[in-house]
Design brief:
- With 246 residues, the chain is α/β, with parallel strands linked by helices.
- The chain has two domains: 87 residues, no CATH class; 132 residues, D-Maltodextrin-Binding Protein, domain 2.
- 41% of the residues lie in helices and 18% in strands.
- The two termini are 38 Å apart.
Length: 246
Amino acid sequence: MPLTPEESFFRAFRHQAFDVAELSLSTYVMTTARGTCPYIAVPAFVSRSFRHSAIYIRRDRGIARPDDLRGKRIGVPEYQVTAAVWARAILAEDYGVQPADMAWVSGGVEEPGRLEKVALALPPGVSLNRAPEGRRLSEMLAAGDIDALMVPRAPSCFDAGHPDVGRLFDDPAGAAAAWFRRTGIFPIMHVIGIRRSLAEAHPWLPQSVFKAFAAARDAAMERLHDTRRLPSPCPSSSRKQRGRAR
């Protein structure tokens, strides 16, 4: 079933809707630590992403560096969403900006009413409030009702070119490359989970699922190599092909 990550993760953790599913790493780790996770994960990391690009800011709030986020209101789709966990880790480890230094607002980025998938136990001193009913975080950032936003994908107000919305890191790719050279970390976002009861009943199942995803990865990489080996079409042959098509 092809689903958005938001719908897939919610259904997986709220309703245990799937036998095998792509899962949020942060939610998987949190529920596993509590002993309540209905899934067993295999190390098939189907989504990885650097998250220096995940922090969007209001340009008119005096935010020029990460430590300028102290005292600001930061939107997150869910406090424990993996992208925000990695972004907070970068702020804390590299810039000394702790989660308790900011006020957090959770809610849907483009659609109102998003809820946390699982119950939270927030660290001491962390303030988290729900967005007002009917409000979207992208809209709130555009209106200046929040000062920044941590999201896995760019909010619509940024894509639309809002003049007062930008990224915290002017060169997020450069910042991520430098961070990777220093840490060697390529952040994991998603894993593949198997219903725990099935894995216990069929001990061979996790290994078989992992082999299937490894085979899929290898096939995809081979296609990339094949594409790279293809010669570039010359202009004359392209014109001939277009002529035949007509």
